[in-house]
Specification:
By secondary structure, the chain is of the alpha+beta class. It has one domain. It is built from two helices and seven strands, in the order H-H-E-E-E-E-E-E-E. It has a five-stranded antiparallel β-sheet, with no helix packed on it. A two-stranded antiparallel sheet has the order 5-6. It is globular and about 30 Å long. It starts with a helix and ends with a strand.
Length: 110
């Protein structure tokens, strides 16, 4: 019985930590597949923010490499711009992202 419970627990853990987006538009699944091909193995995440009256999604690649940008996508998965990177960008559409956005939650992490 213990062996069965261990197998079931490992299966559920593996399934819950997979590549599924918790919420958001369907196109995020495709965007996530591409993102996973170059993001860090353990510190990457996708966060949902409210920005200029709409939901946007930040694809943060994690901390395994210096100067990697965080891409900002809208609900149609169009890229609005990026934050950080070598130049340290802080603006999206001419506005300071941190000042004009509110964090809604993390919808994926590895």
């Amino acid at each position: 019985m213990k062996t069965l419970l261990r197998i079931l627990s490992l299966t559920l853990l593996t399934w819950s930590c997979g590549s599924r987006i918790q919420r958001g538009p369907e196109c995020l699944t495709t965007a996530l597949e591409g993102f996973q091909s170059w993001c860090c193995a353990s510190t990457a995440h996708v966060d949902e923010y409210q920005f200029q009256g709409q939901l946007v999604y930040l694809f943060d690649p994690g901390t395994c490499g210096a100067d990697m940008p965080t891409y900002v996508l809208d609900t149609q998965c169009d890229t609005l711009g990026f934050l950080g990177g070598f130049a340290g960008f802080t603006e999206i559409q001419g506005l300071d992202f941190a000042a004009y956005s509110s964090f809604q939650g993390t919808i994926w992490h590895n």
